[in-house]
Amino acid sequence: MQFIDQARIAVKAGRGGDGIVTFRREKYVPAGGPSGGDGGRGGDVLLVADANLQTLLDFKYKRLFAAIEGRRGGPNRRTGASGDHLVIKVPCGTQVRDARTAILLGDLTDPGEELLVALGGRGGLGNAHYLSNRNRAPEKFTEGRDGEDWLLQLELKLLAEVGIIGLPNAGKSTLIAVLSAARPKIADYPFTTLVPNLGVVRRPSGDGTVFADIPGLIAGAARGAGLGHDFLRHIERTRLLVHLLDSSADDVLADLQVVERELSAYGHGLDQRPRLVVLSKIELLGPSELASKLKILNRHVAAQGGQPVLAISAAAAMNLAELLAVVWQQLGIASASPPG
192-244 pLDDT, tens per residue? Predict the structure, then answer.
């Protein structure tokens, strides 16, 4: 399935039905009078958050959505049928903006949450409405009103509590694959991950927490370089960032600072988000080299008031329980007893 996280669509609510001009013509009803009914109301357009959707792919191929028009009125003061509402399903985490002004119209985060984006037109009045003592046979009616039409910008921001970030090939996909049932593409070249991956990691309480593996950031990502600019938005909703560093890199501190600068440049408070710095792929280092790199990183992180740097190996399943224990602690979740 393609991962599409932005789409532009046009929505149009239904037009109201016209009122009509009719007069009663019944036996034993002299001068029956006006009996034209009102038109029905046009259908509204609503967006509804659906937990079963993960992408805006449906809107890549269909971009115009129109609700049903109201029916015209009938004789004997019969009101025309109202148009059915048009319900459009979107993934949870979809933000809706007016494409012309960029004003935020709504943020659909909870399953079943609704947002009215276009109001149906009011039905017209039949001539029965214009009966008066001065006009016993009105031939006046009104047409139905047009429904609202809007050009909308949809933007999906994934709903995950933990975001895994880092430079390309830092081991993000391997980590989420080991911790959860997610099966991202894993290879030994940069930019293997081209779209965010979600994985549910089991918590001590028995339910799950969603982790998001964000495609690799590079210098200049906040300005559009690489893939980072496209996917930095997906960590705006996270409560905690896990920043992975490849222990085999020549200068791990420089790698750490590259991503820190991009978080700061992007804004939205990402540089102030709680963050765990994690040195990955430690199976590639000897004890002395590992200790040296941890010392360099801890000095930098401690100066910023951060947590001590963790060292793990996802491939060799080393220290993963310790990592999760710190994650649960940061999220305010009680840790389970360690396995015997």
Answer: 444 667 777 887 766 678 888 877 565 444 444 444 455 677 777 888 999 99
Alpha carbon distance 26, 145 (integer Å): 32
Whether the model clears a pTM of 0.85, i.e. scores above it, the answer is no
H/E element holding 45? strand 45-50
Same domain assignment for residues 63 and 187: no
Residues 133 and 247 in one domain: no
Residue 273 burial class via C-beta count within 10 angstroms: exposed 0-12, middle 13-18, buried 19 and up: middle
Same domain as 187, residue 106:
no
Residue 215 near residue 191 (C-beta atoms within 8 A):
yes
Same domain, 219 and 119: no
Query: Residue 338: inside a domain, yes or no?
Result: no
DSSP one-letter code for 2: -
Angle 71-75-80 from CA coordinates, rounded to 5°: 20
Per-chain mean pLDDT for the chain: 83
| Cβ neighbour number for residue 203 with a 10 Å cutoff | 18
**In contact, 300 and 253? CB cutoff 8 Å:** yes
Question: What is the separation of C-alpha 34 from the centre of its chain, rounded to a whole number of angstroms?
Answer: 53
Q: Say if residue 30 is in the same domain as residue 75.
A: yes
pLDDT band at 267 (very low <50, low <70, confident <90, very high): confident
What are the distances in angstroms from CA 32 to CA 79, 106, 125, 135, 270?
19, 51, 19, 14, 73
Structural contact between residues 212 and 162, judged by C-beta atoms closer than 8 angstroms = yes
- The residue assigned the tokens 């060799």 is 316
Measured CA to CA, the distance from residue 149 to residue 45 in angstroms comes to 9
Q: What is the pLDDT of residues 52-65, one digit of tens each?
A: 887 888 898 899 99
Q: Mark which of 156, 172, 204 sits at the end of a domain.
A: 156
For residues 56 and 33, give the distance between their C-alpha atoms in angstroms, rounded to a whole number.
Answer: 55
CATH of the domain at 242: 3.40.50.300
